[in-house]
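User: Let's play a game. I give you a shape written as tokens, and you guess the letters that built it. Ready? Here's round one.
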């Protein structure tokens, strides 16, 4: 972790670099992506998808982040930082666009208790290697909710927790989280996720704590 700037760890708005690294590494495992590598004082994941060439992730602002933003002109390059979105955008030259933000969150203490599943639904769990998948199906067989988790590098990472709009407000998100949490092997693994604005309320109701805003900027294709 020596490539991170030491001042990042002491600022209350910034995430611990070790926690952020563990989350990003676990996310990569969950999604079948390359592992993050050190770059510009942060981390880089070469996603190479149709809409994203790569992503850079930083625990907070620093000289490396500023240098990267000044030198980058390629579209579909996503830069993410723990901190307010406007603060990240202010570091960038013209051409970058702010995207919807999220929140880096952690959970300590007892694992989530398993609530009763609403009538007519069923839960399925599947594990491929270290990747755990939970799916909730409605009575007609349609997928109502799904999510993933990975225990990796000292962290238990929740990923892509989603409930279909037609099946919300029935406690399915709580059931998913409990089903995934039950598969955690090590009590010392830190539970971590990145939540959307909508998801934050669910996680806070389950005892999760916001560590930092998680902000994103990108140069879209239209800037070429």
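Assistant: Ready! My guess for every position:
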């Amino acid at each position: 972790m020596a490539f991170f700037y030491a001042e990042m760890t002491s600022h209350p708005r910034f995430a611990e670099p070790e926690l952020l690294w563990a989350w990003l590494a676990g996310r990569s495992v969950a999604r079948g992506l390359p592992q993050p590598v050190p770059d510009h004082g942060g981390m880089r994941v070469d996603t190479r998808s149709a809409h994203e060439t790569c992503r850079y992730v930083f625990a907070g602002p620093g000289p490396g982040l500023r240098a990267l933003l000044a030198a980058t002109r390629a579209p579909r390059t996503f830069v993410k930082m723990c901190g307010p979105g406007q603060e990240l955008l202010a570091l960038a030259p013209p051409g970058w666009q702010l995207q919807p933000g999220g929140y880096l969150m952690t959970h300590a203490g007892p694992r989530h208790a398993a609530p009763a599943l609403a009538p007519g639904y069923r839960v399925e769990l599947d594990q491929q290697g270290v990747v755990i998948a939970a799916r909730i199906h409605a009575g007609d067989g349609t997928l109502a909710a799904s999510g993933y988790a990975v225990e990796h590098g000292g962290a238990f990472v929740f990923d892509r927790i989603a409930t279909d709009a037609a099946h919300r407000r029935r406690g399915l998100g709580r059931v998913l989280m409990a089903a995934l949490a039950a598969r955690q092997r090590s009590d010392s693994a830190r539970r971590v996720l990145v939540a959307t604005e909508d998801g934050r309320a669910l996680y806070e109701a389950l005892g999760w704590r916001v560590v930092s805003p998680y902000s994103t900027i990108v140069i879209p294709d239209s800037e070429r």
